[in-house]
Amino acid sequence: MNDKIRLCILKLKFDRLLDRKVKTKDLRGAVSNLYPEERLLHQHREDGKIDYHHPLVQYKIINGECLLVGFKNGAELLANLELATKTLFLGYEYYTILNTELEFHHISIKTTETVQSYSFLTPWLALNEKNYQKYKMLGGWGKKKDLLEKILIGNIISMSKSLGYTVPAPIEAHINNLKEVKTSLKGTPMLGFLGNFSVNFEIPDYWGIGKSVSRGFGTVKRVNSVQ
């Protein structure tokens, strides 16, 4: 994947401020219900089963702003969605979309010669059930940090493979600071992480890594461009 790939960020502007109780899953459900035929929006195949490939459309709520981020075919889809004037049921209320803003970027997903620094804007779901038990059994932060860095590298490699890029060189990841945060997924309590990390890999702003990225988890942004 040496060529630049198109990335689209679609920002939704509503008729009023979004209630803090609105979750990313609400946004995902409301938008995908408007276009049930667009499988990239909901990750369900024609037979109804879930497509577990890395999602090409991801949903975000960051600082009260709703974003849809599309990569490759997902970018083309978002560019052609007509969401202005549509009404979405989010949480317990209806919101009307007054207008939308589109941003287009041409980006690369690749290893880099220099280390890049990133921040998690939304909780990173690093641990599956097995890794969670292992994480809890580890004594000091140093061992936990080593485990999380290995998982982070695995997440990046998995994301790359799903997007058609084979990582040609070793990835080195370093967690600079990280804190545990309580969150939930489909009503189940989950342990997430927020903080900064550095890695010799280029990750697009607002893209997600880890578990449940289509629902907004694990969203990253380059530190030197964090607003």
Helical content class: 10-25%
Q: Any guess at the CATH architecture of the largest domain?
A: 2-Layer Sandwich
For the largest beta sheet, what order do the strands appear in spatially?
Answer: 2-3-1-5-4
Indicate the mean pLDDT.
Answer: 90
CATH topology of the largest domain: Alpha-Beta Plaits
Give the number of DSSP strands.
Answer: 9
Structural domain count: 2
Instruction: Please describe the biggest sheet, giving its number of strands, its sense, and whether it closes into a barrel.
Output: 5 strands, antiparallel
SSE topology sketch:
Elements: E1 5-14, H1 24-34, E2 57-62, E3 65-71, H2 73-80, E4 87-90, E5 93-107, E6 110-120, H3 129-137, H4 141-162, E7 173-185, E8 188-202, E9 220-222
Antiparallel strand pairs: 1-3, 1-5, 2-3, 4-5, 6-8, 6-9, 7-8
Protein architecture, described:
22% of the residues lie in helices and 37% in strands. The protein is α+β, with helices and mostly antiparallel strands and 227 residues long. It folds into two domains: 5-107, 2-Layer Sandwich (Alpha-Beta Plaits), CATH 3.30.70; 111-225, Alpha-Beta Plaits (2-Layer Sandwich). The protein has a five-stranded antiparallel beta sheet with strand order 2-3-1-5-4. Strands 7-8-6-9 form a four-stranded antiparallel beta sheet. The chain is globular. The mean pLDDT is 90.
Provide keyphrases for this structure:
single chain, 227 residues, alpha+beta, Alpha-Beta Plaits, 2 domains, five-stranded antiparallel beta sheet, four-stranded antiparallel beta sheet, 4 helices, 9 strands, 22% helix
